[in-house]
């Protein structure tokens, strides 16, 4: 599934941020077109670095909260009385790297 997102690093970032552990990437990283890899090298470096590494407690809490909120997550998060930066984090807004 992740291999299908290679042409869109932003989509791949959202997908990977849904995982509690970044899965092995060596097989599909070989398929990245050179131009895309060069343009988004920082992102792909962060993916390699996080492969099979434990995610931060902050990220694991985001995963748990998103799982708990279920299908109506966007509407549910929008109703929360929380800072906009936290709201964007919970909504998986892209920042160009995996942490």
UniProtKB/TrEMBL annotation:
<keyword id="KW-0732">Signal</keyword>
<dbReference type="GO" id="GO:0035556">
    <property type="term" value="P:intracellular signal transduction"/>
</dbReference>
<dbReference type="Pfam" id="PF07525">
    <property type="entry name" value="SOCS_box"/>
</dbReference>
<comment type="pathway">
    <text>Protein modification; protein ubiquitination.</text>
</comment>
<protein>
    <recommendedName>
        <fullName>SOCS box domain-containing protein</fullName>
    </recommendedName>
</protein>
<dbReference type="GO" id="GO:0016567">
    <property type="term" value="P:protein ubiquitination"/>
</dbReference>
<feature type="signal peptide">
    <location>
        <begin position="1"/>
        <end position="20"/>
    </location>
</feature>
<feature type="domain" description="SOCS box">
    <location>
        <begin position="52"/>
        <end position="90"/>
    </location>
</feature>
<dbReference type="InterPro" id="IPR036036">
    <property type="entry name" value="SOCS_box-like_dom_sf"/>
</dbReference>
<dbReference type="InterPro" id="IPR001496">
    <property type="entry name" value="SOCS_box"/>
</dbReference>
